[in-house]
Specification:
Elements: H1 8-26, E1 32-34, H2 41-44, E2 57-58, E3 61-62, H3 73-83, E4 90-92, H4 97-111, E5 126-131, H5 135-143, E6 147-154, E7 157-158, H6 160-166, E8 172-177, H7 191-198, E9 208-212, H8 230-233, E10 243-248, E11 260-263, H9 266-279, H10 285-295, H11 298-327, E12 333-335, E13 344-348, H12 353-362, E14 365-367, E15 384-387, H13 394-416
Parallel strand pairs: 1-14, 5-6, 5-8, 8-9, 9-10
Antiparallel strand pairs: 2-3, 4-11, 6-7, 10-11, 12-13, 13-15
Helix pairs in contact: 1-13, 4-5, 11-13, 12-13
Length: 417
């Protein structure tokens, strides 16, 4: 029965039952973490053989020394094949793509984009942010004082009618996107949305889309989603320079010791290299070499990611099963069943998400800060909760999902009463 159809007596009875369950969980003194998309120990153990590499030479070059600022050729080719671009359009970076994104925004802010006016010297700079979205994108923009504008996500990707209207404002300088298995909803942009993004005609010549392809090969099921390669489409609209794509091996091998990569046009690569020549002499070429030896090629990456999927799939299915059993048909929550990525996005009855977070914390379950999936931590409907099933062991995850569901039901009953 939908909670909104219950009378007061029924709601009071429901609350009494939920209070008992909640207090039983609370008495267990738990400490369960579903706050961030960290790979589990079991996943990290999959890549330990990488550390057996001892020969750090390539084409006669000693990779332990300085040099090769854009990355070793074999690793550039590996990422080029993964992203569907030419090796000359790849730059390899440090362990995380977050650093590449931060550095690029910093470069635009201090020195401009390919000769444009530095953003720091403009009266106002704005960025479009599909919501709900990735909190660390918002943190970067807030750090530089760039104004964030919400763009609602649809089942196909960002609301492109809104995007096309907003880019007519010259102070709008870019947009962050997670185009495959979006964080947190797990939505993959449709071909039509990718084409409309590629065809944008922004008023700002220095408009840049940060194409954060974090989950490019992070399927949970054998039949995953297909994402149109935006670099195949951009030339059709003379927009080759508009997109800066990043990805990393953070959730393939070791998050603290992976490799990041950036793909961009010839002009953007040249522009970024000017800054890199001042910023570093080279990134970790030994690590690049280890990754190439470990994976071999893109087929090797795919085979490796199937091992990750075998660990992730039962965890996702467990959480989704609890959501359906506990919340299905009650009219208080909706969610998307992703085919890949690292998160499940749960939308609860408007005005109740923060209370759900409080109840979970009280019962010993740590969630991503409620509101974090929106700029400035402000979810206007106070309804979105990001669930990260990857880190906890299965038995802990089972318990955490049960507590989450009871907390959702309890918060909604309280609101209705």
């Amino acid at each position: 029965m939908k909670y909104t159809e219950m009378n007061r007596e029924q709601l009071i009875a429901e609350k009494a039952e939920l209070d008992k369950r909640f207090n039983d969980y609370k008495a267990m003194g738990l400490n369960l973490d579903m706050s961030r998309g960290k790979p589990s120990k079991e996943q990290l153990d999959l890549s330990m053989d990488m550390l057996n590499d001892t020969d750090y030479t390539e084409s006669g070059i000693d990779l332990r020394n300085y040099g090769i600022i854009d990355g070793i050729p074999s690793c550039k080719k590996l990422f080029a094949d993964l992203l569907g671009v030419e090796p000359k359009n790849i730059l390899l970076g440090p362990n995380a793509s977050l650093s590449l994104m931060f550095d690029y925004i910093a470069q635009a802010y201090s020195h401009g984009v390919m000769g444009s006016t530095p953003w720091s010297k403009l009266p106002e700079v704005k960025f479009l942010c599909p919501v709900p979205g990735y909190d660390r994108h918002f943190t970067i923009l807030e750090y530089f004082g760039i104004k964030m504008i919400n763009v609602d996500m649809t089942p196909d990707g960002p609301d492109m009618d809104a995007v096309e209207a907003l880019v007519k404002d010259e102070s709008v300088k870019g947009m962050f996107c997670v185009p495959k298995y979006s964080n947190p909803q797990g939505i993959t942009y449709t071909d039509e949305v990718v084409r409309r993004i590629a065809a944008l005609k922004p008023a700002a010549e220095d408009f840049r889309i940060i194409w954060d392809n974090a989950y490019i090969i992070h399927e949970i099921y054998d039949e995953g989603d297909d994402l149109l390669n935006i670099f195949d489409v951009l030339p059709e609209y003379n927009n080759d320079d508009m997109v800066i794509e990043v990805c990393s091996t953070s959730k393939m091998t070791f998050p603290g010791a992976g490799i990041s990569a950036l793909a961009a046009s010839d002009g953007n690569i040249a522009d970024i290299l000017k800054r890199l020549n001042c910023q570093t002499i080279s990134y970790d070429k030994m690590n690049q070499h280890r990754h190439v030896k470990f994976f071999g090629d893109v087929d090797g990456i795919k085979a490796h990611m199937k091992k990750h999927a075998a660990i992730m799939k039962p965890k996702f299915e467990m959480v989704l099963r609890h959501l359906e059993n506990e919340l299905g048909g009650k009219g208080i929550a909706t969610w998307i069943e992703p085919r890949g990525g690292y998160f499940i996005s749960l939308d609860v009855m408007e005005g109740c998400a923060k209370r759900v977070g409080e109840l979970c914390k009280e019962a010993g379950v740590v969630l991503t800060n409620v509101g974090a999936t929106y700029p400035y931590g402000n979810d206007p409907k106070n309804s979105n909760i990001r669930i990260a099933p990857s880190l906890p062991p299965v038995d802990e995850l089972d318990l955490a999902a049960q507590i989450l569901c009871v907390s959702v039901r309890l918060a909604c009953v309280e609101a209705l009463l």
